[in-house]
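Weekly modeling sync, notes
Attendees: AB, CL, MP (scribe)

Item 1: holo prediction request
CL wants a bound-state model with thiamine diphosphate before deciding which constructs to order. AB pointed out that an apo prediction alone won't tell us much about the pocket. Agreed to run with the ligand included and paste results into these notes for async review.

Input as submitted:
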Amino acid sequence: MQTTDYTKNKDLKTESFGCGNLACPGCGETIAMRGVLNALDGDAVIVIPACCGSIIDGLFPFSKARVPVLHTPFATAASTAAGVLHGLRRRGNKHTTVVAWAGDGGTYDIGLQALSSTVERNEDFLYICYDNEAYMNTGIQRSSSTPLLAWTTTTPEGDLKKAPKKNIIDIMSAHRIPYSAAATVAYPDDLVAKVRRAKSTPGSKFVNILAPCPTGWKSKPSLSVKISRLAVRSNVYPLYEVFDGERLVLRDNPDPVPVGKYMELQGRFHGLSEQEVELVQRHVDHAWEQLRKRADEII
Amino acid sequence: MSSRQDKNKRQSLPEVSASTSDMSWNHTGDWSFIAPVYASRTAPCAVKCPLRVPVNDYMHLVNEGRHREAWQILAAANPLPSVTGRVCYHDCENGCNRAGFDETLNIHAIERFLGDTAIEKGWELPVPPADAAPAPVAILGSGPAGLGCAYALRLAGYPVEIFERETSPGGMLMVGVPEFRMPRKLLAAELTRLERIGVRFRCGEKVEDIKSISQQVMGVFLASGAHGSRDAGVAGADLEGVHFGLDYLKAYNGGKPHDTGGRVAVIGGGNTSIDVARASRRLGAEVDLYYRRTEAEMPAHPEELEEARAEGVRFHFQVAPEEIFADSDGNGRRVGSVRLIRMEQGEPDESGRARPVPVAGSGFEVEAATVVFAIGEQPEFDYLRGDGALNGGRLAVDAFGRTSIPGVFAGGDIVPGENSVSHALADGIAAGRNMAAMLRSFGPENLKKALDEGVPAEKINFDYFTKAPRIEPATSLKANPAGTDEASATLADAAAREEAGRCFSCGTCTDCDVCLVFCPDLAIRRSEGSYVVRTEYCKGCGICAEECPRGVISMERKDK
Ligand SMILES: Cc1cc2nc3c(=O)[nH]c(=O)nc-3n(C[C@H](O)[C@H](O)[C@H](O)COP(=O)(O)OP(=O)(O)OC[C@H]3O[C@@H](n4cnc5c(N)ncnc54)[C@H](O)[C@@H]3O)c2cc1C
Ligand SMILES: Cc1ncc(C[n+]2csc(CCOP(=O)(O)OP(=O)(O)O)c2C)c(N)n1
Ligand code: SF4
Ligand code: SF4
Ligand code: SF4
Ligand SMILES: [Mg+2]
């Protein structure tokens, strides 16, 4: 059972997140942002580069987030966040969390350079990648986060994605930042706990949140949470944390379901042969075994 | 950046691009044509229960230790839970969605626990309104059908009188079902509780002619059950020591059991045959039960069969009696042996089951001092003096429980349908409610509303539950039973609570917040202890309906 306490005793006025967002029905991004803002008790500034997230937030001069939001160019989420951070701290504000909120395109690909240099300086901020595994806002182009054999408009039928998904947590770990973690929307308790842990850790923090996208994944809007849960239960998307680039804490999955159960709910995987699904299963099994071997603690 | 608080800046565009207000003016609900609708749904257990007990509504209360509130919900639908918790065949459990997950919920064990607890604590039924009519409704027979009708009429404020030819009320529960299955002090406790809400028993009054009472009353409910025995047509059946099952049990239950002679042959395969066999074991006899069909075809409930086996009853299938012989050592009047013959399955008969046919030359003889024919009971309606349309040997009734005689209703074993305590109770309650409604001249609109099919297992989100084994009370069956000690046990408090915790609460919102947490559009809010959908923001994604653990939410067209 995974629900969270953040909705208790809260009405719309006190949630740091309002109604009227511009997301598609069933979008995982909004579930993720609501969880994050509630975990931060609304004490945050958000920096959003070009991505669905910046559209979802609303039309200028309106915003669904009840915290300040800055829109920045595509590649600059992390560096802009660092600028905001220094401005706030100079003005004596020691408590507000500065959040960079970017898509996978803006994180795994185009924003990677800014992200790398900002966390290398160990700036005291929280980088969140809501990961919908493609450039959704511009019409579902592949990113380096797109999974193996997924359909996108740039990996069409007959030329599906050949490379497996890039492991961004490994990249962040290589920077030895104090905290990085993988979370997803179906596990709000876990998500909120990770964000709160990040908030209380000084230095650079990175959380990747798998956020199903019905439009880009060609899935039913009603299944977004279920698909997120199946990603974890099939080991496609393990939930884990890395402290100081070293200590790895993994959430165990004693009774995994076959990857086919996860893939069959998504049109982006339709038409794959049994052998292809089997190939994905082997990749997933291998990655899971590696992760278990590396883990210092399995919870 | 706190431009939102800076009122002056609102007049003109700010110098830097910064948001000034939130997006709630944007009613994204305009994008959708569907929106979630909350509805308390019927659980499948309740659909299977002849009494439609809303099991899903009270289990969480038991789990929380709120036994009295749970009992009140239960008793509103079933005034005899201590009885039905023991003798009802619990069809409810056949509907339990938990079967598709691990094991069904032990509903009847919890029902019995609540029934017993209520008796122990002295909990009372609600006080009915003052008598709403000058004359009573007459009820013929104090078995479960009569009791159900009386209960429903009393709750509606109508006076009732139950005519019962026996010296104490309860019908088959008193004269048929033996004490080791239904302790009489618990039966009496539930009956006196009904007396305290104004049910009047007129015991020892046999009705000879229905016309003698129908004049002075507002209406009549016939619930005289099925007490007539069927002739076995076997030579030697007039010998001493040959009995009909129900008569044999009535003698046993009345404290004056027949002498068994130490060796009893029971013929038949229904409830009565099993109770005869188990009672005979308690009288110290060796007991053999002969049934002409296969074990799988036995009408007795498998649980009863198991219990009888555990108590040393020997079962023989596909055998039938041919002739009963007198004991050559005695006075020549008492049974000494029975000749039986093996049967095999022939062509299907009218009931669709294979017709049992004798295997030529397979006859054999067994010793017996008592032979009991328990081959079914049938209703008798001498008191109708030929009135009333029949249907297959039973009284025909319409959907309201009305017979063809004006003002006369009927239910229980005398009408077509299943013969069981809870079916009889349900018939009585339904007829009582219908009578009350008609008596008030409201017409049939207040009648029991048709129930839906119940929440299907696919609507239960198993991801939100953890598996746990079904809990049974500790067994107390003995290989050599003696006396009237009850042959089964009641769940302990902690066990009852734990087992109740396995209930999914199918179709009942438990305020778990799952829908609220996952709505991507914050369109679900709490309101006065429940939830409301702000349809002006709902985009109709359906996540709430998909995720709800217990099938409470369904998506419906907004324009409906
Ligand atoms: C031995 C036995 C065991 C059973 N075990 C079970 C069990 O474990 N579980 C289960 O669900 N069902 C069981 N049954 C079936 C169940 O008992 C009946 O289906 C149920 O009792 C029928 O209820 P009723 O109210 O229609 O009739 P009854 O319970 O038979 O009550 C009818 C009453 O009417 C009275 N009566 C009849 N004629 C007159 C008259 N002219 N004047 C006044 N009073 C009259 C009778 O004395 C009797 O008290 C069993 C039946 C038998 C015979
Ligand atoms: C430098 C630059 N290149 C391209 C674009 C066009 N663009 C806007 S959003 C976007 C895709 C963003 O993808 P991602 O970061 O994964 O976020 P998503 O929309 O999938 O949520 C692109 C290519 C841009 N705004 N700036
Ligand atoms: S789980 Fe509970 S509510 Fe659902 S069918 Fe079983 S007993 Fe009834
Ligand atoms: S989750 Fe929210 S937006 Fe989606 S259908 Fe339910 S109420 Fe509507
Ligand atoms: S998800 Fe939980 S709170 Fe929402 S309707 Fe279903 S049972 Fe009720
Ligand atoms: Mg993306």
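Recorded for review: The longest helix of chain B spans residues 421-439.
Action items: CL to compare against the apo run; MP to circulate these notes.
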